[in-house]
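Ticket reopened. Same input as before:
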Amino acid sequence: AQTVTQSQPEMSVQEAETVTLSCTYDTSESDYYLFWYKQPPSRQMILVIRQEAYKQQNATENRFSVNFQKAAKSFSLKISDSQLGDAAMYFCAYLTGANSKLTFGKGITLSVRP
Amino acid sequence: DAGVTQSPTHLIKTRGQQVTLRCSPKSGHDTVSWYQQALGQGPQFIFQYYEEEERQRGNFPDRFSGHQFPNYSSELNVNALLLGDSALYLCASSLPWTGDMNTEAFFGQGTRLTVV
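Engineering reply: fixed in the latest deploy. New output:
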């Protein structure tokens, strides 16, 4: 069974600074997809960034980038120039084509200090 | 495009009762998945519907059942409610999996169910 581990329950960052959120996963599949979702107090899950496992190049979306280490099964999210609106819960998630269901980690609460 | 809509937003039920939650998928999406998110936890997959059939199911008891209608909307039913069923229930819609990232899942804002 696939598992996703987020070992840091909470993190805090100063506005305009950079923060990295960690995630590890376990799988025997060779083809899969990894995601970071943001869940603000409004509760709606919002996709932040995604990575295809077969791509060696790390995904980037504006201020958000990932460090994907396939051999280590590590998938961290870097948020640059942090903004107050980045404060939320962040979930790492995994998906394979075999079953197309998302497996989530427990999440991390990110706070941004003004 | 209204995106994924869920109703109701909040619900309080008594232990032993039954509840029905509803989800309308994003326009053009025909696959609906349901997730349970306990407080402070990540969402857990309940089941997925496609073409009005349950296509796959997570590790949830038979008290959890669902339905998908011809217009792709879906219902989640929970019978004999337990206190432990209190959670945020999220609905996600997508296109059928084709092996590419066009099958991104879009989530609704969830239904907060409290069992007392």
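The two ends of chain A are 41 Å apart (CA to CA). Chain A has no helices and twelve strands. Please confirm and we'll close it.
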